[in-house]
Amino acid sequence: MSLTQQRVREILGGVSDPGLDKDIVKYRIFRSAEIDGDAVLVNVDIPTPAYTEPMRAELRKRIEEALTSAGASEVTVVPKVVTVYLPAPSEKALLPGVRNVIAVAAGKGGVGKSTVATNLALALRDHGAKVGLLDADVFGPSIPQMLGEPEKPAGTTEDQKIVPAIHYGLRVISVGFFTNKAEAVVWRGPMVHRLLQQFLSEVMWGDLDYLICDMPPGTGDVQLSLSQLIPISGAVMVTTPQEVSLIDVVKGIAMFEKVEIPILGLIENMSTYTCPKCGNVDHIFSHGGGKRLAKESGIDFLGEIPLDSRIRYGGDSGVPIMLSAPDSEHARRFLEIATAVTLNIADLVLSQPKRSPRLSIIS
Ligand SMILES: Nc1ncnc2c1ncn2[C@@H]1O[C@H](COP(=O)(O)OP(=O)(O)O)[C@@H](O)[C@H]1O
Ligand SMILES: [Mg+2]
């Protein structure tokens, strides 16, 4: 008895994918099947470029096994990456062509927000995504410093639109490109909302899977303005393990909840310190508070980034650790975090029934 379309759907409804751990039919990872006698070709939509090779291989294996045991003689799985995104209300469509905006935020400064934003952007790039990085920290833009000299500087088009700089294949815009330190005060005034709106609407991002947005620290008017102006898919929160930082990140989480932006997870940065000489492990800023807080708040714990002088050096010298030490434990963790964050977006999108797209993207 040869398989029918309906039978294939039924069988695949019993298969879960190894990334989201969800039913591949319900979560629209299964797109279509082509049946030719006993041979079945299955088209699958991979929801994020950061879906890893082992995940893809395991997904293929599960589909092959399920269909083979139902009588298929030959199963071909054809994967296609289709980055899913959260449709945003149209009044927020300030960034056409940008599928997902991921805010990187913290309650206070100095906890490693910009470090995480930069390395997360590079990790997503390494996974094959098209990535932009927006340094929206109007109080202390530091991305230009962290990325060093661009391959191509930011520019303007004939009609006065802003073209992002290119750094290591990332499209980058910093509020620091347009203000000097003395002018930073301009961002604090009552005009900040209008200034940001104007600035943001003038950037030509082009087609991006993910735009990482390095948010200013704190939970004041500027942060609220930004959260409302940019169609943020979700926020990644960064904290250090000590109490003062944890208390502030709780306020940050509350702010995003107030404006209905999902929290994609929490990272504990500057977690442990392993002495490179003697191997002694020290918890300089305490340890484990991030994990505990995530559990208490019901948000995903994305991982710990240890204290390491190579990270500090990378931030100062314009060569982030993803590039200076791509085989390091740190780089591995950023790659894992990139996968987890984008899978969390995919889970948010695909757990909803299909909605009409926010924008049409040609690619
Ligand atoms: N895990 C880490 N190990 C060592 N230094 C770090 C680490 N994370 C951040 N830093 C350093 O700490 C400083 C503050 O980090 P930064 O990312 O600028 O924080 P924020 O953006 O939250 O103000 C920078 O000099 C950075 O290089
Ligand atoms: Mg910063």
Largest sheet: 9 strands, mixed
Distance between the termini: 40 Å
Structural class: alpha/beta
Low-pLDDT runs of 5+ residues are 357-363
The count of β-strands is 14
Mean pLDDT across the residues is 89
Provide the succession of SSEs.
HEEHEEHEHEEEEHEHEHEEHEHHH
Radius of gyration: 22 Å
What coarse outline follows from CA principal-axis ratios?
A: globular
What is the percentage of strand-forming residues? 15-25%
Task: State the share of residues found in helices, binned by percent.
Answer: 25-40%
List of distinct ligands in this structure: adenosine-5'-diphosphate, magnesium ion
Q: Count of helices?
A: 11
Please characterize this protein's 3D structure.
The chain is of the alpha/beta class. It has eleven helices and 14 strands. The strands form three sheets. Strands 4, 5, 8, 9, 10, 11, 12, 13 and 14 form a nine-stranded mixed sheet that branches. The longest helix is centred in the C-terminal third of the chain and has 22 residues. The structure holds adenosine-5'-diphosphate and magnesium ion.
